[in-house]
Amino acid sequence: MHRLLIVDDESYILNSLVDLFERCTELELEVHSARSSAEALRILGQVRIDIVLADIQMPGMTGLELSVEIGRLWPYCRIIFLSAYDEFEYVQQAIRQGSVDYLLKTEDNGVIVQAVQRAASQLSETWEKETVVASAQLQMNEALPLLRQEYLRRLLSGPPASAACRRVKFNRVKLPLDADQPIVLVCGRVDDWGKYRESDDRDLMKYAIQNIAQEYLVSVQFQAVHTANRRFSWLIQSKEGLLNGQGSDGGSGQDTELGRYVQNNLDAIQATCRKLLELPLSFISTMKPLPWEALPDKFDLLNRQLFQGLGKGAEAILIEAEKQAKDGSQDAGQYPGDLERRVNQLRSYMQALRQEEFAAGFGELADAACSLGVPGYLEIRARLFALLLNMWQELESAAPSVADPEWEQLASPHSSDSRKESLAVLLRQFERWFECKLAASADPAQELVSRINLHVMARLDQDLSVASLSRMVFLNPDYLSRLYKQTTGVNLYDYITGIKVEESRRLLRDTDLKIHEVAEKVGILSREYFSRFIRKHTGMTPQELRDKRR
After folding, report:
1. 3-state secondary structure of 159
2. Distance CA 548, CA 550 (A)
3. Does residue 392 contact residue 399 with C-beta atoms inside 8 Å?
4. For residue 223, what are the contacts with CB-CB under 8 A and spacing of at least 6?
5. Which positions ≥6 away from 93 have C-beta within 8 Å?
6. pLDDT score for 187
7. φ, ψ for residue 12, nearest 5 deg
8. Which CA distances in Å does 50 have to 168, 233, 270, 443?
9. pLDDT at 244
10. Rg over CA atoms, the chain
11. CB of 258 within 8 A of CB of 286?
């Protein structure tokens, strides 16, 4: 499937083109639209776009100026210009800037569809396996010095080196990275070597994977590290003036520009390696750049997450599940007042099977409990014990025996054990819960689908885009869409659409809500778009559906 972005400042033309390609069954397209170059750039900064169909003359930034920004962000994106004028000067500029085609808006719809079809075919033919493997062979013959790889592996395994030592060593081994600038870390895995049985073949394929990644990640500084037989890591930094690492909200959001850029490319890298090298790959990455000193711990954490839960499946693309930040303004004596939020956070970690984050959060509360007076300690211990009981009850058949000596200790808040011993017993029981829950969760993909479905049904009036849902479950958006389809046989977009249509039918049939209020209930703010949406999926207008109940 290719992503098509249609850009035109004339609403009638834009809506007509969107409708044309949504009805175009011969092409597998995910269609996006924008009414200005500025809006198009926002979409291009968040989602990898494969084909752009753009008006060449728009207010503010012209289509030609927009194409320069597209080339900077997505070098392999194919561009088709639309114009109301047959002017040779525009044609010349379009050809110089590498557009796929130049069409008049007066052209027949079939001509426009054929142009997009040609662009899609050119995208599929861009990569030639012989070229990739030949380039990989050359890269292998001119392999980076062993010292560089050895040093990078030491950086990943720790202990952390000082900034001064890093600068000296980076210069000595000529690493193309900044010893002071934060990095995004990607950990990868070859899921199955398949036909590549010899070690020489596998080494060659590692360089082929690296070359493909470098072709996509052209806007960043990139360094690959071969860490084990099936594992590899990438260290990625911003280039000067590009992808400064600040979030689109000025840095306060969870995502960052650099992290989004990397995530948006992982699916394409994975697909290209599958097609050209016949190698299935899985990835996990940090979303925020991290300091070099944090690299060993983060490397260890990502590798463990890549082999747990959904990470155990083939061709996974995960996002690191970040811990909740500590509130530095709050000292241990104030924890009881914040206890409800802390315990609820631990519950959410348990429900998501995020054991690392749970252990860190538990440790914070345990440290606080040990530093407080008796009432504060007992309050924290009681709340943690109540959480444990509640979560065991949800497991039902896996509940522990009440005759267990450790449970007898936990049931007595005034036992003779020290605070640390008592809390250690409590933590062991939580660890047993995670073991039983993981054993019972034979199909984490099915659990994820159930979680997504419940979220959609409960929040139809909120943002249900794939990008929003992927942030909720810490998965790459492309991987989430693919996993949902593999698990259910239904496209995630089609499922959400179906739920919205059925809920709209119900509200129009069973309530007296105004039509615009029904639209808001299913997350559609435009009455005009809601009418088109309902007519497209039911063959009737909202008013006709409402009249039908009488």
Report:
1. coil
2. 5
3. yes
4. 152, 175, 176, 177, 234, 235, 236
5. 64
6. 94
7. -65, -45
8. 41, 26, 15, 33
9. 52
10. 27
11. no
What DSSP designation does 283 have?
A: E
Task: Report whether 263 contacts 319 (CB < 8 A).
Answer: yes
Strand partners, 185: 235
Given this model, what pLDDT does residue 234 score? 95
Tokens of 395: 């497991």
Token pair recorded at residue 492: 């995630």
Residue 186: phi, psi to the nearest 5? -115, 125
Q: Provide the angle, in degrees to the nearest 10, between the axes of the packed helices 374-395 and 419-440.
A: 20
pLDDT per 10-residue tile (average), the chain, 550 residues:
89 89 84 91 89 86 84 87 69 58 80 88 70 62 69 84 87 87 94 90 91 91 87 89 47 64 92 94 92 89 80 84 42 50 80 83 87 81 85 64 57 63 87 79 74 85 88 87 90 91 89 90 89 91 82
Specify the residue for token string 């590498």: 98
3-state secondary structure of 241: coil
Phi-psi region of 417 (alpha: psi -120 to 50; beta: other; left: phi over 0): beta
Nearest alpha carbon to residue 362 among 434, 285, 460, 411:
434
pLDDT of 277: 94
Q: What are phi and psi of 223, to 5 degrees?
A: -140, 125
In the DSSP assignment, the letter for residue 312 is G
Using DSSP, state whether 415 is helix, strand or coil: coil
Q: Which two tokens stand for residue 441?
A: 């969760």
Which pLDDT does position 265 carry in this prediction? 92
Please give the pLDDT value at position 336: 46
Helix ranges (DSSP H) in 4-108: 11-22, 37-46, 63-73, 88-96
Structure tokens at 451: 């979680």
Q: Check residue 210 and give its pLDDT.
A: 93
DSSP bridge partners of 81: 54, 102
Note whether 187 and 306 are within 8 A (CB).
yes
Name residue 276's amino acid: L
Has this prediction a pTM greater than 0.70?
Answer: no
Residue 144's pLDDT is: 57
| Rounded Cα–Cα distance for residues 204 and 133 (Å) | 8
Dihedral (CA of 469, 248, 69, 208) sign: negative
Helix intervals (H) in 273-331: 295-305
Reduced to 3 states (helix: H, G, I; strand: E, B; else coil), residue 233 is strand
DSSP-derived secondary structure for 335-397: GGGGHHHHHHHHHHHHHTT-HHHHHHHHHHHHHHHHHS-HHHHHHHHHHHHHHHHHHHHHHGG
Strand partners, 231: 189
Hey, is 51 helix, strand or coil? strand
Residue 254 CA neighbour count, 13 Å, CB half? 14
Q: What proportions of the chain, in percent to the nearest 5, are helix, strand and coil? A: 60, 10, 30
**Helix crossing, 88-96 with 63-73: angle to 10°?**
10
Q: How far apart are CA 380 and CA 377, in angstroms?
A: 5
| Sheet-wide strand order for 231-238 | 220-226, 231-238, 184-190, 281-285, 317-319
Rounded CA separation 182/121 (Å): 39
